[in-house]
Write a structure and sequence with these properties.
Elements lengths: L2 H4 L4 E4 L2 H4 L8 E6 L32 H18 E11 L4 H10 L3 E9 L16 E8 L10 H7 L8 E3 L24 H11 L5 E4 L6 H8 L3 E6 L2 H12 L22 H6 L8 E3 L5 E5 L5 E2 L4 E2 L1 H9 L11 E4 L2 E4 H11 L4
Parallel strand pairs: 1-8, 2-3, 2-7, 4-6, 7-8
Antiparallel strand pairs: 3-5, 4-5, 9-10, 10-11, 11-12, 13-14
C-alpha cells in the first residue's frame, strides 16, 4: 500500500465527518458501517413508571431543525461513503423508524443496491414507559453495495456454521449494550448514549469482510467498530468529532488483541480439500462400519471398506446415496452425511479439513 495511504489505516480522524470524508481517497475502503444520528425528535422528559428520569438520546449531534436539513446532511455523507467504497465493497447503515426510511430512499436515489434489510431484534429493549405505543424493540440495518453488479463479500458458510449449520436469517436477536460492556464515566453514567453491542458489529464485519480489509465508520463514537475490526484481524478508520469519545475509543482499542482463529480467517469459505472417504478411513478419521446420519440424526447407513454407504438395500457412493434419500437426481454427499463425535453430529466434510490440517506438509 502507498505510504501516503497508510496514514489512514487504524486511525481516528478528529473532526466532523463531512469535513474528513472528502480527505479519504477514492475507492479506498472495503466496508462502511454507519450509525448516524437518528434525529429521535423526543419532546420533554422521559420518565420511568417510578417517576425517575430516563436518560435517552439528548445529545447535540442528534438535533436537526427540519427534515430537509436532516436529508441534506444524510445525502452528503452517503455520497462520500459511496465514493470511497471499492467497486465490490459494501455498506451497512443502521437506523430506527425515525430515520431509516429516509436513509433508504436517499441511498436508492444515489444508486446503492440494497441486498438485505436486517432486523436487529432487542430482547432487552427499553420499554415504552407511558404505555402509549408498542414497545419499540428493534432497529433496522440496510446492507447495500455501490451497484447491482458488485461482486461483494459474503461469508455464507462461516455464518451458516455459527448458526448451527443452518442458513443465517435476516432477524438477529442481540441484546442492547448493558452490564460490563457498557462504557461508563467516573460518575457511573454511560459514556455514549447510543453505544452498540460488540456482538452486532461482530456479525456485520465477520460476514462481509476478509482478513486485512479496511472498515470505515464515519460516526465512530467510542470505537465499537474499531475494537471488533481489530479483534477479527481487519483494519479500521474512524471519524469522530468529539474529543472525549476519541480518547475513550483509543484506550478501548489498545486493549484488544487480534484473534487469528480459523473462523476469523474464513477457513469455512475455502474450497474443501480433495480428500476421499477412503483416505479418511486410512487416516483413522472414519472407520469401516461406522454409522452415518443425516442432519436430523436419522441413521442412513454404514460405511463400507471402499468408502461407500450401505443402507441395507443398496451400496452406493456418498453422493448417490444422499441423492437417493433426498429423492434427487444428484447431490453432494459431503454436505449430507454426519458421524457422531463425543455424542454430537459432525459433518463428514469437516473431517476433510481436519485431515488436511494434520497432514504432514512436504
Amino acid at each position: 500500500m502507498d505510504k501516503n495511504l497508510t496514514q489512514y489505516i487504524n486511525s481516528i480522524l478528529a473532526g466532523d465527518c463531512l469535513v474528513n470524508l472528502p480527505s479519504i481517497p477514492d475507492e479506498f475502503v472495503d466496508l462502511v458501517f454507519a450509525d448516524p444520528p437518528y434525529w429521535m425528535q423526543t419532546e420533554g422528559e422521559l420518565l420511568r413508571t417510578n417517576g425517575t428520569k430516563f436518560s435517552g438520546v439528548e445529545d447535540h449531534w442528534d438535533k436537526f431543525d427540519t427534515y430537509k436539513e436532516y436529508d441534506e446532511f444524510s445525502e452528503k455523507w452517503l455520497k462520500e461513503c459511496k465514493r470511497i467504497l471499492k467497486p465490490n465493497g459494501s455498506i451497512w447503515v443502521i437506523g430506527a423508524f425515525q430515520n431509516i426510511y429516509r436513509l433508504g430512499y436517499i441511498m436508492q436515489n444515489l444508486g446503492f443496491w440494497i441486498l438485505n434489510d436486517v432486523i436487529w431484534s432487542k430482547p432487552n429493549a427499553v420499554p415504552n414507559f407511558g404505555g402509549t405505543r408498542f414497545q419499540n424493540s428493534h432497529e433496522t440495518l440496510l446492507w447495500c453495495t455501490k451497484s447491482q453488479e458488485a461482486k461483494y463479500t459474503f461469508n455464507y458458510k462461516t455464518m451458516k456454521h455459527l448458526n448451527g449449520d443452518k442458513q443465517d436469517k435476516s432477524v438477529w436477536d442481540i441484546g442492547i449494550c448493558i452490564g460490563g460492556e457498557r462504557l461508563k464515566d467516573e460518575d457511573g453514567k454511560k459514556c455514549h448514549s447510543t453505544q452498540k453491542p460488540e456482538k452486532l458489529l461482530y456479525k456485520i464485519i465477520l460476514s462481509t469482510t476478509k482478513p486485512g480489509d479496511v472498515v470505515l465508520d464515519p460516526f465512530f463514537g467510542t470505537g465499537t467498530t474499531g475494537a471488533v475490526a481489530k479483534l477479527l484481524g481487519r483494519n479500521y478508520i474512524g471519524l469522530e468529532r468529539d474529543a472525549k469519545y476519541i480518547e475513550i475509543a483509543k484506550k478501548r482499542i489498545a486493549k484488544v488483541k487480534t484473534d487469528e482463529s480459523d473462523l476469523h480467517n474464513l477457513a469455512f469459505e475455502m474450497k474443501p480439500p480433495r480428500v476421499s472417504t477412503k483416505q479418511l478411513i486410512e487416516g483413522g478419521y472414519l472407520s469401516i462400519g461406522e454409522k452415518l446420519y443425516d442432519k436430523k440424526d436419522i441413521l442412513i447407513g454404514k460405511l463400507t471398506s471402499n468408502g461407500c454407504v450401505d443402507d441395507e438395500h443398496d451400496v452406493l457412493s456418498i453422493h448417490k446415496m444422499s441423492a437417493k434419500h433426498l429423492k434427487l437426481q444428484n447431490h453432494n454427499g459431503w454436505d449430507f452425511f454426519y458421524v457422531k463425535r463425543e455424542g454430537r453430529l459432525k459433518l463428514i466434510d469437516d473431517l476433510r479439513y481436519d485431515y488436511k490440517t494434520s497432514e504432514p506438509q512436504s
